[in-house]
Amino acid sequence: MISKQKVESNISQWMFRINFFYEICASFSRSTFDMNRHINILCTFSLIFLAGFVHAQEEKIIYVEHNTSSWGYKAELLMSSVRPGSENDPLYKGDSVTYDVNDHPGVKPGFAFGVFYETRLTNSFYLQMEVNYQWYQYRLDYVMNVKDGMKSKYDADYTMRSSSILIPLLPKFRFGNKYKVYVMAGPYINVPFSPHTSGKIVIEQEEAAGKVTTSVIRDESINKKPEKLEYGLIGGIGVKVPLKADDLVIEMRYDGSLNDVVRDPDLKAQAFSLHLGLIKVLK
Predict the structure, then answer these.
(1) What is the distance between the alpha carbons of residues 7 and 3, in angstroms, rounded to a whole number?
(2) Are 205 and 174 contacting, i.e. CB atoms less than 8 angstroms apart?
(3) What is the pLDDT of residues 211-259, one digit of tens each?
(4) Do the Cβ atoms of 14 and 54 come closer than 8 Å?
């Protein structure tokens, strides 16, 4: 039997490491103003994971249990949008180009489905891995002014649609007896493919004589594509409801990209999603 003093010593050591890690992150955040938001988010998620690991260590010391693994499949409804990225927050002014970005362009619906696997590390701490196919869309609404000899203005309002493979890794805490409530947070990568666009870009060009000519680019001719790789963070809350044979899971999540998913103008992605799934325990 492990003594109480050894348990307390183990917990104290891990709490010291967490505090030391946070101080490093906070110091770096203060010295890097432009990255404050991202550093604070990463610190928060890292602390959640480390706290879970401490909890896992404590439970492993006090009592030993067999791990329980399960798998499941799910479907989800997505509500996606974009927000200003690294170079326009929300107005970016360059040497020859000015972007006026609508930072509230509205959300667009999408859907996803996939499979997941989870393993129990302790009584309440789990690790969940997923592979999801998703179809989503973003509305892009901005005006680009180009300081050239023609004084060109690009008034864009179009929708970008794409399929992708989303792969998250989600540590989670689960509480309760019959109805188990849980919270989760972790990183993800998203690989888009088969993008296409619909909408228009109205181009106005003023010639030297003051004459203004107008042209329109439509749909696929816009030739705007998402970046080849998106990465970011996911946070969510859910509940597991026991059924006769399997368990039903209901989740709500928010995910946001840390990198720009569209260039010129630079925009990041975000989405709210509602998930429904079934879990099967592996015996």
Answers:
(1) 7
(2) no
(3) 788 999 999 888 888 899 999 999 999 999 998 888 999 999 999 999 9
(4) yes
Which CATH code, of 2.40.160.20, 3.30.565.10, 1.10.10.60, 3.90.180.10, is assigned to 66-144+160-197+224-282? 2.40.160.20
Q: At residue 47, what are phi and psi to the nearest 5 degrees?
A: -65, -35
Of the candidates 116, 83, 99, the residue with the CA atom closest to the CA atom of residue 260 = 83
**Residue closest to 260 by CA, chosen among 223, 236, 235, 225:** 225
Distant-in-sequence, close-in-space partners of 46: CB < 8 Å, separation ≥ 6: 21, 25
Q: Are 226 and 262 in contact (CB under 8 A)?
A: yes
What is d(CA 249, CA 180) in angstroms, rounded to the nearest whole number?
9
160 close to 138: Cβ distance less than 8 angstroms: yes
Tally of CB atoms within 10 A around 170 = 22
Helices first, then strands: H and E counts in the chain: 2, 11
Cβ burial of 38 (10 Å; 0-12, 13-18, 19+) is middle
Nearest C-alpha neighbor of 275 from the set 254, 245, 258, 261: 254
pTM of the model: 0.72
